[in-house]
Design a protein that fits this description.
The complex is a heterodimer.
Chain A lengths: L1 H9 L3 H20 L6 H26 L7 H19 L3 H25 L5 H20 L10 H7 L9 H19 L1 H11 L1 H6 L4 H26 L12 H10 L11 H20 L4 H19 L3 H4 L1
Helix pairs in contact in A: 2-13, 3-8, 3-11, 3-12, 3-13, 4-5, 4-6, 4-11, 5-6, 5-11, 7-11, 8-9, 9-11, 12-13, 12-14
Chain B lengths: L7 E10 L2 E11 L4 E6 L5 H8 L7 E6 L2 E2 L5 H6 L2 E4 L11 H5 L6 E2 L2 E2 L1 H14 L16 H14 L4 E5 L7 H16 L3 E5 L3 H7 L2 E6 L2 E7 L5 H9 L19 E10 L3 E9 L3 E5 L6 H8 L7 E6 L2 E2 L5 H5 L5 E4 L3 H5 L6 H6 L7 E2 L2 E2 L1 H15 L15 H13 L5 E5 L7 H16 L3 E5 L3 H7 L2 E6 L2 E7 L5 H9 L10
Parallel strand pairs in B: 3-10, 3-11, 6-9, 9-10, 15-22, 15-23, 18-21, 21-22
Antiparallel strand pairs in B: 1-2, 1-4, 4-5, 7-8, 11-12, 13-14, 13-16, 16-17, 19-20, 23-24
Chain lengths: 322, 509
């Protein structure tokens, strides 16, 4: 009972333990292939790459907990990167640090639009955000066509994404930690977090309890947009420039990471520890598949299968709900 | 006549939902060529009887016989095959399809695997003629028809299945007088053809006019089956009420007409459901809402809480006018409002979440400190409320869905008491919970009233209104048709008012 209560308190429920179990299995399996997989250097390298996905998944989780989904993530990532790098060109040296909050704000703005559509127009988030993704894509093509805006990352972006300032730990990992702590605080300690879970379980109950459900919806979509754009800014720093479609490979892994971590795809249940496990699991899976020289097509097949498999395991909580 | 084999017979049928008995040991026979009226108060077991007869649910115990042979309906389709067809209260038509498509939903005529449009249309025309709806075009979309026409199409759809036993559940409640006449005619024609008819209605005069035989239900038991004219209207009402006293209510203070008004409603209207409702509820008063199910009671409570859009009329709380813009503004009124909703599973609770999270959901604003929630204060408040309401849960972190119905309802009540409301609106709070918890709730309401809180209380159980309320408002068709104060709150007055049959209120003996 006491052990159960303690594990419950930190959010170590069955799906999370399964996810961590899978991580260990993958590492052990990898070490049979090459002992390199258990070296500290390799693991830190994976965590650094995983940090970008982790930041995107943090935002995606907030939206999924509501019972919604944000499919505008890919081009919001690209938007964040492009806006941030472009600002450096527009305002000169002052943009070195300002570029980062500017990129994030642009992403949050897209998120607010998503939230307005879902909350007030009551359109299904799947359709609305898919449309928004296409709109942002168009805008970004327009942005880069003919004007040749600056697309090089500023030093600040490079610093956050690539450098290792303390004890050889990548700075990107601290950024993920920072975003993660915000999410944990929001979900566990604030009225906003309670409202997120409440809406994911039963929006009508939340509304009848006096919660401003529309504000919560908009807040979560804005947060998701901001996270995606922030990750875009860092990715630009990591690869030194912003480029078209740089966010495309992140949609499926981000949603997969959240779901693998035990968050109910229909909303209302899930904790951040699970998302951390999901992100690490996906990152390792990607890494090992590429080390094993699995072609891209095969990787996609494996991703999709893993997500469907996990949904079969946990995603059917809806049946036991009533 | 009783020598004949009944078309449908129920033998010792019982039905329980969870721990609650909806139907207990019922024997019931329906013969062909006979119109059989089924009577009873809300919750007497009529709907359950119909659901079992038409295969929507299974009986927990007992036998269902069709033409003398035991038959187990696993689905409405099974029942239809046996010739039992039901026209339900809730319309079952698909609004975005044509009348002809709807009428041929089961048994679509086909030619070479494709729908035979011509045959389907001809069939629709014939069926519509049968129910006197020649003015309805078969290719019209159902959603474009007025409600009364839709109800007629619904009946035509049932006739398409060539029923041996036709069940009509409140089939005339949406109809105009002309259509009702038409329905009577069809029903009598069907009787001549040897079809058996089960007819559920709350309108006494309809039953007098139509029925050959009537059966009265009360509290899930069959009380009596009698032939037309064997019983007077008064006797029937008496049978529906019964004489058993099953609950004990806390003592009421004498009726006091000089209370300070807490809630004043004037001329409240909303669509067709609320028509110019005006009343006053005083501080420390329990006001009951009575009447048949679905006469606007729920809408009234929702309107007061600001949930309905486009409500006309004014509401003032403690002398100041209340904006009906949403729960938030109702909860911040001078005397804060609280609404205990009807369906605790959909509107009251988040079943997979913990007792604690459910309890504090409505009062999170009060528990705030800085950016976050003051968890120590939260824990203290939750523990205090669990103790005060005697909520039996293994742990405050247990999921609410694991508690019994009574304890779930206590959680809903406790959740709203934590907001310290001045006016409490309750929408049928004792439905489906055990007797012990019911009595705790009655005591709680009386104590809250004694503290000066105002309570507006809708119940489908008349006895509860009499036992608990200082004043009862009877609603009929979205209007307050009668206001019973203090000693006038008797079963006879409430039932007669609800059925709208006896315009002179009986004085209590």
């Amino acid at each position: 009972m006491n052990v159960a209560a303690a594990t419950q308190k930190i959010g170590l429920d069955v799906p999370v333990m399964v996810a961590f179990g899978c991580i260990i299995v993958i590492l052990l399996a990898g070490s049979l292939y090459s002992p390199e997989f258990l070296s500290l250097d390799y693991l830190l390298q994976q965590l650094q790459v995983g940090a970008f996905l982790g930041i995107i998944a943090s935002g995606a989780m907030m939206v999924i907990l509501l019972g919604h989904i944000d499919l505008s993530i890919p081009w919001t990532v690209t938007l964040g990167a492009m806006m941030a790098t472009a600002l450096g060109g527009w305002i000169g040296p002052a943009g070195v640090w300002l570029a980062i909050p500017f990129g994030v704000l642009c992403g949050a703005f897209i998120g607010v639009l998503n939230g307005l559509g879902v909350a007030y127009l009551r359109l299904p988030s799947m359709i609305f955000t898919l449309g928004m993704n296409a709109v942002v894509q168009g805008l970004m093509v327009l942005h880069t066509g003919g004007f040749a805006p600056q697309d090089h990352a500023t030093d600040a972006m490079h610093f956050l994404a690539v450098k290792r300032s303390i004890l050889g730990i990548p700075n990107a990992l601290f950024v993920w930690l920072f975003v993660g702590l915000i999410v944990i605080f929001l979900l566990r300690r604030t009225a906003f977090g309670r409202a997120v879970y409440a809406i994911g379980n039963r929006e009508s109950v939340a509304y009848l309890s006096g919660i401003n459900t529309n504000a919560v919806l908009i807040g979560c979509f804005a947060f998701c947009g901001a996270c995606a754009a922030f990750a875009g800014v860092l990715l630009a720093g990591y690869s030194t420039k912003a480029y078209q479609a740089m966010g495309d490979p992140y949609l499926l892994p981000a949603i997969a990471a959240v779901v693998l971590g035990g968050t109910n795809i229909l909303g209302g249940r899930g904790n951040y520890l699970g998302t951390i496990a999901g992100v690490i699991l996906i990152t390792l899976l990607q890494s090992i598949l590429s080390v094993m020289q699995m072609p891209e097509a095969g990787r996609q097949v494996i991703y999709g299968s893993v997500i469907i498999g996990m949904l079969l395991l946990y995603g059917r909580g809806a049946r036991t709900r009533s | 006549m009783t020598e004949r084999t009944p078309l449908l017979e129920l033998k010792g049928v019982s039905k329980r939902y969870g721990g609650i008995a909806a139907l207990t040991d019922v024997d019931f026979k329906a013969y062909s060529g006979e119109i059989h009226a089924v009577l009873g108060e809300n919750g007497a077991g009529k709907s359950t009887l119909i659901k079992i007869a038409s295969g929507v649910t299974d009986a927990s115990e007992g036998e269902v016989l069709v033409n003398g042979t035991p038959f187990r309906f696993r689905s409405p389709t099974d029942a239809m095959r046996a010739g039992v067809v039901c026209v339900f209260q809730e319309l079952s038509l698909l609004p975005d399809m044509t009348v002809a498509d709807n009428l041929s939903m089961a048994g679509t005529p086909t030619r070479g695997g494709f729908i035979d449009q011509k045959a389907q249309r001809a069939r629709a025309v014939e069926l519509l003629k049968r129910v006197g709806c020649e003015d309805v075009h078969p290719l019209e979309l159902v959603k474009n028809l007025p409600l009364s026409r839709r109800q007629m199409v619904e009946i035509a759809k049932a006739l398409a299945k060539k029923p041996k036993l036709l069940i009509l559940d409140e089939a005339t409640s949406a109809l105009t007088a002309k259509d009702v006449e038409r329905i009577y005619l069809i029903i009598r024609e069907l009787r001549e053809e040897g079809v058996g008819i089960l007819y559920v209605s709350h309108r006494m005069h309809e039953i007098e006019e139509l029925a050959d035989v009537a059966t009265v239900f009360r509290n899930g038991r069959k009380i009596e089956t009698f032939k037309k004219g064997a019983r007077s209207v008064n006797e029937i009402i008496q049978m529906m009420i019964g004489r058993e006293v099953t609950h004990h209510y806390p003592p009421k203070p004498p009726f006091d007409d000089s209370r300070q008004p807490a809630l004043t409603v004037s001329n409240l209207s909303w669509g067709h459901d609320l028509n110019g409702i005006s009343f006053t509820a005083g501080k420390g008063e329990i006001v009951g809402l009575g009447g048949l199910d679905g006469q606007g009671q729920r809408e009234l409570l929702l309107a007061l809480f600001g949930v309905l859009k486009g409500v006309e009329g004014t509401v003032s709380v403690d002398g100041r006018s209340l904006q009906l813009s949403g729960p938030r503004s109702a909860m911040t009124a001078p005397l804060p409002l609280a609404l205990i909703p009807e369906d605790r599973k959909v509107e009251g609770l988040m079943l997979p979440m913990s007792v604690r999270d459910n309890l504090t959901l409505a009062s999170l604003q009060q528990l705030r400190s800085g950016l976050g929630i003051d968890t120590e204060r939260e824990t203290a408040a939750v523990n205090e409320m669990v103790a005060r309401m005697q909520i039996k849960a293994p742990d405050t972190s247990a999921a609410v869905g694991t508690l019994s119905g009574g304890n779930q309802q206590k959680v809903v009540l406790a959740k709203w008491l934590m907001t310290d409301p001045g006016i409490i609106l309750l929408n049928d709070p004792t439905r489906g919970i055990d007797v012990g918890t019911k009595q705790e709730i009655y005591r709680l309401l009386r104590n809250l009233a004694a503290e000066g809180k105002t309570i507006v209380f809708y119940s489908t159980d008349y006895a509860e209104l009499i036992g608990c309320c200082d004043k009862v408002l009877i609603l009929y068709g979205g209007r307050i048709t009668r206001e019973l104060k203090g000693e006038d709150c008797t079963e006879h007055n409430i039932v007669a008012g609800a059925l709208n049959v006896n315009p002179v209120p009986e004085k209590a003996a």
